[in-house]
Each structure stands twice: as C-alpha cells, then as structure tokens.
C-alpha cells in the first residue's frame, strides 16, 4: 500500500502550491450557535440492552484483555 | 402486479390515498420483487427476518430501501463492514424513523462501499453490487445498492448518503435521480459517521417528484443532531414547465479534465435543452473547484480516521481474539474487520492530522474548502445554478479501477466541490452514451447545484428539465460485456 499512499499524497499535496495566506479555514459549513440546556439527568438505555451487542460482556461490564499481558 | 411495480412512489401514494391500492398489496409486491435480487443490492430484506421496532403500523407509502449505513433497531446494520457483522443497533436513525412514521415500510438494507468509502461498490465486505444496465459493470458508489435496487426494479425508491458524491454518482451510473440536500437539511443521527462535516442523507428515486416527496418526509431539525437545521419551508411537489429567466453556470475549469466523449455529448445536448426551455447558459470561473479532490481526500480521511477509532472490538461488532494485551486485541480486530480502502483512508487521515503535517495537509485543505465555498458564493451572485456532468464517465467495468485508488477518486471530480461547500445538488438522467472504447449504451447523469437551502428552486428546475428530456430508457440487465 506504500506506493498507493505516496501517489495519493503527491496528488493532494498540490494544494501546497496555492496561495492561501490569510484564508480562514472552514471546519464546518453551517453557522452554529452553542446551545445550552439544563443539566438534568434523563433516562438512558438499560445496561443489558447496551451490553447485548458487546463481543464479551461480563458482570455488567465490557470485558477486555489485560492492559499489560504477561510476557 | 407488474403494473403496480410500474407506479412511482408518488403515484403509489396517490393510489393508496384514493383507495385504489392497498398498502399491504403494494408492500407484498415489492417484498417479492426485492426477493428476486440478483444484483447483490440488498444485505438484508424484510423477508430475512422480523422488522421488529421499525415495522410500520399504518403504511400509506410504498416501501423503501435503506442504505445499510442507517441504524435500524433490532435489524442488522453493518455499513458493509466485517467489523460490524451481526450488529443490531438498539436505536433507529432519525431519517428512517421519519420514513416509518410517515408510513413507509422498510423493504431492506442495501449494500454499499464499506463505511461509504468508495465510488464503485467494490469495497463492500459482502461482495460488489452489479449494475442492472450491464452486470459486468459497477453501479457506482457508495450508495450503489440503493441505486441498483431502484434502477433494477427491486425497490420503488431508496435513501442513501452522500459525502463526496455517494448519492449522485451511483444515481448517474444507474440512470436514476439522486439528490444530495444542503448539509444540515436532514438529521445525521443514527447515520454511521464517515466524515461528519460532509455526510448528508438523501433520496435515490425514479424521478424528481419522488425525490421531492422523500425530501419533505426526511428534512427537519432534530434535537439529536446539533448540526441539523432543516429547511425553512417544507418542500412542495415541483410543477415548473420552463426555465425562463433562470441562469445556469458551466464552470470553465471543470469542463476539460478526463471526461468521456459520450458524457460530453450528452452534457452539451442537455445545455441546449436548457436554452430551449428559456434558460440562459454562461461560463463561470470556479478557480478552486479543480482542487476539490485534493482537499476532499485530506478532509474526509482525516474525519474518518477519528470517527472510526470507535471500532475496537469492545462495545459492539466483532472482536478478533489475540493472545496478548488489550492493544493487540484492538490491532487484530481492526486488521481483521476493516477492508483495504478503509485502512488506506485511516492511514491517510492519521497522517494528515499528525503533528508536523497538520498545517501542510489538513490546515491547507480546510482553507481550500473556504476558497471553493467562496467560488460558489460568487457564482451564485449572478447565477441561479451551477451545472456539470455528474460523473466523468458512464459505468465502468468491475475490477477496472480497483488497482488505482487515485483513478477511482477522480470519479468524484464533479461532485466533491458541492459537498465541500455544503450546497444541494441533484443528478438526473440526461441520456445514454457508449463508454470510450466502445460498449453498451449506458446512462449519463446531469448535475445541477444550487445555493444552500434553495432545494425548492433546484427541484423545480430539475423537474422542468426532466420533463423536457423525457428519459425513459430501462436497463435490460444484459450479462455479456
């Protein structure tokens, strides 16, 4: 994949040739205002519903391998 | 039943309202039609299992095919990725919920490029979709299953998503109508995220009226998506018959590059048709549009690399067991779960966002995005619409571009600038053309773009042009090349 990625980076790198000084970057096209709401608890999904999709649920939680395996 | 399947979504709805057609009869006929899918357009169909929470109590619209990127409660949702194999979401996307509440049963979930990354549907983990016009060719992507289902008579209408052309390009290659609304017109809640600042839901339909009807159902503000703003006024069915007084701009910079001669001929003929209808055509400068592909293939992978971090084998989807620690589990899960194109874009995006390269790639791409939006704003100062071919080529052969990602990306040349600017654009079938080098007659799409939130104006012009073109060719489903 290295060759493909280099080819793509060469192509997209052409934007380096444009004069973009003083241009404001666009991260989002919709003008949005921050909207605040009262910080009140609302019902969320039951734990068992969420855990139903987990590959390895255990004791009401997501079980994962140890962060640091024995070596 | 054959006649029933000939009805457009709007016609079927009118027949139901008039008591001439029962919704159940309509649904049953389409369930049977979807059952004959030989195009690999569907990943799941209602007959494959109980629709459960997305079942419609009182249907009054023809059933709809839904791209498998929309979460549907209790119904498999994979985004055509191995990493989500077996996933049944606990909730339903707002767009789908609106369809269900409006009375449209879900006909099935359609195949797509994995996580909507692709322009040919060959990136699906569940096999490519075949183009109903010629089964040796691609339907386009990423909403290829939705487009092929509508074009191939397997669904009356469908929804998809468009990040850089993923509704418009497959609509073009399959000879149907595809609308990408203004960013923010339709809620993204429950739409599996690819590039959040670009992703937008939209209809794939047989005609412009059906697209207007579905847009009216889908659009609206949603408390679950803070970027959804909806449209100021609900879309009406278009009825305009001419284009008098309207000005259409053809971008000078986008006329030249790599367009097939057949596509060019159909495009030029369509421009003449616009003039016959009273519209005015002139060239306009969109000097930065040609850099759209470069900016897009930095911004979209950057956002994707962040969005796809969530697939780690912990909370949902598959887990590839590893002997080592949790990091090895993440790595083996993502290595096994993602396909090549998704991996390619995660790596590109991670690189573009990395310290030392951020300004050169992501920062600059965001500035190019500003320039492209400014180009369009300037054009819309003196024009009502910008028009281009939807795709530089007709449907190409399966496997033809899979070895050359950059050639594949160039499919999006005409559609990406509108996505970056967040403006609405529609593709309508404008005629048939042979591919360069010969082959069968295949559909060519014509793209019309309008200013943000000018959907009604866009639909009216597309409708008038559609009536004048009178495109009535149908795929023969030929199997030989």
Describe this entry's structure for a reader.
The complex is a heterodimer of chains A (71) and B (481). With 71 residues, chain A is mainly α. Chain A has helices at residues 2-12, 47-51; strands at residues 57-58, 61-62. Chain A has two helices and two strands; from the N terminus they run ααββ. A two-stranded antiparallel ribbon of chain A has the order 1-2. In chain A, a hairpin with a 2-residue loop joins β1 and β2 (61-62). The longest helix of chain A has 11 residues, at 2-12. The two termini of chain A are 31 Å apart. The model of chain A has no long low-confidence stretch (mean pLDDT 89). Chain B has 15 helices and eleven strands. Chain B has three domains: 2-218, Amidase signature (AS) domain (Amidase signature (AS) enzymes, Alpha-Beta Complex); 247-289 and 369-422 and 431-453, no CATH class; 296-353, no CATH class. In chain B, 35% of the residues lie in helices and 13% in strands. The model of chain B is unreliable at 477-481 (pLDDT under 50). In chain B, α9 (292-307) packs across α12 (359-382). Chain B has 481 residues and is an alpha/beta fold. Classes of the chains: A mainly alpha (71), B alpha/beta (481). At the A-B interface, α1 of A face α9, α10, α11, α12 and α13 of B.
């Amino acid at each position: 994949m290295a060759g493909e990625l280099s080819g793509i980076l060469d192509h997209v790198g052409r934007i380096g040739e444009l004069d973009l000084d003083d241009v404001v970057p666009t991260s989002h096209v919709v003008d949005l205002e921050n909207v605040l709401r009262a910080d009140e608890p609302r019902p969320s999904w039951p734990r068992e519903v969420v855990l139903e999709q987990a590959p390895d649920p255990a004791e009401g939680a997501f079980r994962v391998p140890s962060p640091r395996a024995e070596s | 039943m054959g006649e029933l399947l000939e009805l457009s979504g709007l016609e079927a709805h009118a027949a139901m309202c008039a008591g001439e057609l029962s919704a159940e009869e309509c649904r049953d006929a389409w369930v049977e039609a979807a059952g004959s899918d030989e195009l690999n357009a569907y990943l799941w169909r209602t007959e494959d299992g109980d629709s459960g929470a997305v079942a419609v109590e009182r249907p009054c619209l023809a059933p709809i095919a839904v791209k498998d990127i929309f979460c549907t409660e209790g119904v498999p949702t994979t985004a055509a990725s191995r990493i989500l194999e077996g996933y049944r979401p606990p909730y339903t996307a707002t767009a789908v919920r609106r369809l269900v509440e409006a009375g449209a049963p879900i006909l099935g979930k359609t195949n797509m490029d994995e996580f909507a990354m692709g322009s040919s549907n060959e990136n699906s983990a569940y096999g490519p979709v075949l183009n109903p016009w010629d089964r040796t060719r691609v339907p386009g992507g990423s909403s290829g299953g939705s487009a092929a289902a509508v074009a191939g008579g397997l669904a009356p209408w469908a929804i998809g998503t468009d990040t850089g052309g993923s509704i418009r390009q497959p609509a073009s290659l399959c000879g149907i109508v595809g609308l990408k609304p203004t960013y923010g017109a339709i809620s993204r809640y429950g739409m599996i995220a690819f590039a959040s600042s670009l992703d937008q839901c939209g209809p794939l339909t047989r005609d412009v009226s059906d697209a207007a009807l579905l847009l009216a159902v889908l659009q609206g503000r949603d408390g679950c998506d803070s970027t959804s703003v909806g449209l100021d006024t609900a879309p009406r069915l278009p009825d305009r018959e001419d284009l008098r007084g309207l000005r259409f701009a053809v971008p000078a910079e986008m006329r030249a590059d790599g367009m097939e001669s057949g596509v060019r001929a159909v495009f030029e003929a369509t421009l003449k048709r616009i003039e016959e209808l009273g519209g005015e055509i002139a060239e306009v400068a969109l000097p930065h549009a040609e850099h759209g592909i470069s900016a897009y293939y930095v911004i979209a992978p950057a956002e994707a690399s962040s969005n796809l971090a969530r697939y780690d084998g912990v909370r949902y989807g598959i887990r590839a067991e590893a002997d080592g620690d949790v990091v090895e589990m993440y790595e083996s899960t993502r290595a096994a779960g993602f396909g090549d194109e998704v991996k390619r874009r995660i790596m590109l995006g991670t690189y573009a966002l990395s310290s030392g390269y951020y300004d050169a790639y992501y920062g600059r791409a965001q500035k190019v995005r500003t320039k492209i939006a400014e180009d369009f704003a300037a054009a819309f100062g003196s024009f009502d619409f910008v028009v281009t071919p939807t795709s530089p080529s007709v449907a190409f052969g399966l496997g033809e571009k899979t070895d050359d990602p950059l050639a594949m990306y160039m499919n999006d040349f005409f559609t990406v600038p509108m996505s970056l600017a967040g403006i609405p654009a529609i593709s309508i079938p404008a005629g048939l053309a042979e591919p360069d080098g010969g082959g069968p007659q295949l559909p060519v799409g014509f793209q019309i773009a309008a200013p943000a939130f000018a959907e009604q104006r866009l639909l009216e012009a597309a409708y008038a042009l559609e009536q004048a073109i009178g495109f009535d060719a149908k795929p023969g489903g030929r199997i030989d090349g």
